[in-house]
Design a protein that fits this description.
The complex is a heterodimer.
Chain A (H helix, E strand, L loop, with lengths): L2 H18 L5 E9 L6 H12 L8 E7 L2 E4 L4 E4 L15 E5 L3 E8 L1
Parallel strand pairs in A: 1-2
Antiparallel strand pairs in A: 1-6, 3-4, 3-5
Helix pairs in contact in A: 1-2
Chain B lengths: L12 E2 L6 H8 L1 E6 L5 E6 L1 H6 L6 E5 L5 E5 L9 E2 L15 E8 L2 H16 L3 E7 L5 H12 L5 E7 L4 H7 L4 E6 L8 H11 L6 E5 L16 E7 L6 H4 L1 H6 L2 E5 L11 H11 L4 E4 L8 H51 L1
Parallel strand pairs in B: 8-11, 8-12, 9-10, 9-11, 12-13, 13-14
Antiparallel strand pairs in B: 1-10, 2-3, 4-5, 6-7
The structure holds guanosine-5'-diphosphate, magnesium ion (MG) and zinc ion (6 copies).
């Protein structure tokens, strides 16, 4: 995934909310990133710092809540934990898994003052 | 930086503008609405200078209205509906000390782009247009394929093309040489097209009803997977001079696509490329993928791809005809009811008098 364009999209949402709330500054941004979303949290941190420079969110802390990956395995007929997006089923080794959770990329909330 | 599309100043350019006007075109749609003291509401747009000066907090700016009057106002965001909760540390706060609080946003990171894409898709559907977004690594043959596709279809269909590249309008010129309309978007440092840019291009090109709208994305298998442009299908192109494992290395792209064209098949006899393995890898990440083996150079295998396009466009036309028919039926029904009511009114009149 391209974290730079995602970080820019995060900043848009943050700025929009901060302006509406007449904030002076953004202290914290909380993201929810699914385990299967192929967003690299470290890369996201780096890009977030770069794009927020000279914005209302300059210097804001970034909290990334990583949500677990789950998928429905056809052969097992069960929901299993998935460590990576296109990985095999940890039980039976099959690739016939549909991710059911862990693809999310959301801005949850911000702390402003 | 542009706060709507994230582009830097003057980086995104739509072809055909005069000097700076081309830059401005992309930014002009950053509209917002505001209410004057007398209660009138109006919308207006901001140019790139505003996007640059856009410093949240200290945010008052001035506008010139159509009647020549100038006024200034505070900038307000158009999107509402967020929930506030928490009132910062301890209810009472010392005077002059700012209070910090949490504000819930709960929005998908790509929600802005998805909004633009949705609007584009609606516009395509209303007009019965079939829209495709071609994605691949640089050099896989997107432009060559487009040229060949256009040459074989242009006598039957109306076609418009949007070309995305970081620099140059070479590809748009290659398309225009076939005689169809093409618009180049230069993304500068941006490595993908987004919904906002394609919406602008659509407005500029005004594609015909029931036509084919082809978008060549910037050569990149990474972020174009995440940025919906409003197309009906993404078409991924993999050429046989690349690795068979590309679908495994860039699974998001091959999963986002509905069609894969395995291009440059004319070169297969000279390479050690295992086409079956490449297809198996692609199907492993996306079992629903429709695959065509083609050679843009020789034209081999293109008929199946062209038939697929024609079927897609026919589907869009059919859907539109249904909507139009549906609307006609509703209008007829309303007219019938109205006529019925009028009848009753005229029947009742004498009785009431
Ligand atoms: N042999 C062969 N070369 C091709 C084919 N399609 C495209 N090419 C060549 O591949 C190069 C890149 O093609 P282009 O269409 O510009 O790729 P794009 O960057 O994806 O738009 C050009 O030199 C084309 O002539 C094909 O089917 N066979
Ligand atoms: Mg090209
Ligand atoms: Zn299993
Ligand atoms: Zn913009
Ligand atoms: Zn005004
Ligand atoms: Zn403003
Ligand atoms: Zn304004
Ligand atoms: Zn990109």
């Amino acid at each position: 995934m391209h974290e730079m364009s995602l970080a820019e999209s995060v900043l848009q949402l943050v700025e929009e909310t901060a302006i509406r709330e007449k904030a002076q500054r953004v202290k914290l941004v909380v993201l929810e990133i699914g385990r299967l979303s192929s967003v690299e949290p470290e890369a996201m941190r780096f890009c977030f710092e770069a794009v927020t420079r000279d914005s209302i969110a300059q210097g804001a802390s970034l909290e990334i809540v990583v949500t677990p990956g789950l998928g429905w395995c056809m052969p097992c007929g069960a929901e299993v934990e998935m460590a990576e997006s296109y990985g095999a089923c940890p039980r039976c080794g099959s690739y016939q898994i549909q991710p059911t959770s862990g693809l999310e990329m959301r801005v949850r909330e911000i702390e402003i003052e | 930086m542009c706060t709507v599309c994230g582009c830097g100043e003057g980086e995104v350019r739509l072809e055909g503008g005069v000097d700076g006007a081309a830059n401005q075109a992309v930014h002009e749609t950053h509209e917002h609405e505001h209410t004057h003291a007398d209660g009138t509401v109006h919308r207006h747009a901001h140019g790139p200078a505003h996007a640059l000066a856009y410093k949240p907090g200290a945010h008052t700016h001035s506008h010139r209205h159509a009647d020549g009057s100038t006024h200034s106002h505070e900038h307000e965001s158009a999107i509402g509906g967020d929930l506030d909760y928490g009132t910062g540390p301890a209810g009472a706060h010392a005077p002059g000390m700012s209070q910090s609080r949490m504000v819930q946003i709960e929005q998908d990171i790509l929600s802005k782009n998805n909004g633009f894409a949705l609007a584009n898709r609606r516009c395509f559907d209303e007009r019965g247009i079939f829209a495709l977004n071609l994605v691949s690594s640089p050099g896989s043959g997107k432009t060559t394929l487009l040229v060949k596709t256009i040459e074989r279809l242009k006598s039957k269909l109306t076609i418009s093309v949007v070309e995305g590249d970081q620099q140059t309008s070479n590809d748009a010129e290659r398309i225009r040489a076939t005689g169809v309309a093409a618009l180049q978007i230069n993304t500068g440092k941006g490595c993908h097209l987004d919904g906002h840019m394609v919406g602008q291009a659509m407005e500029r090109m005004n594609p015909a009803e029931e036509s084919l709208f082809l978008i060549e994305n910037v050569g990149n298998l990474v972020c174009p997977a995440a940025f919906d442009l409003g197309e009906h299908h993404k078409v991924a192109i993999l050429s046989v001079t690349e690795g068979e494992d590309k679908p495994l290395k860039y699974p998001d792209m091959f999963r986002a696509a509905d069609v894969m064209l395995l291009n440059k098949c004319d070169l297969l006899p000279y390479l050690e490329f295992d086409a079956d393995l490449a297809e198996a890898n692609a199907l492993r990440v996306n079992p629903r993928l429709t695959i065509f083996r083609v050679s843009a150079s020789s034209g081999e295998g293109l008929s199946a791809w062209l038939a697929w396009i024609e079927a897609g466009l026919a589907g869009q036309r059919g859907k539109r005809a249904e909507t139009v028919e549906g609307l006609k039926r509703r209008v007829q029904e309303l007219e019938r009811r109205l006529a019925h009511q009028l009848d009753h009114q005229s029947e009742n009149k004498p009785a009431g008098q």
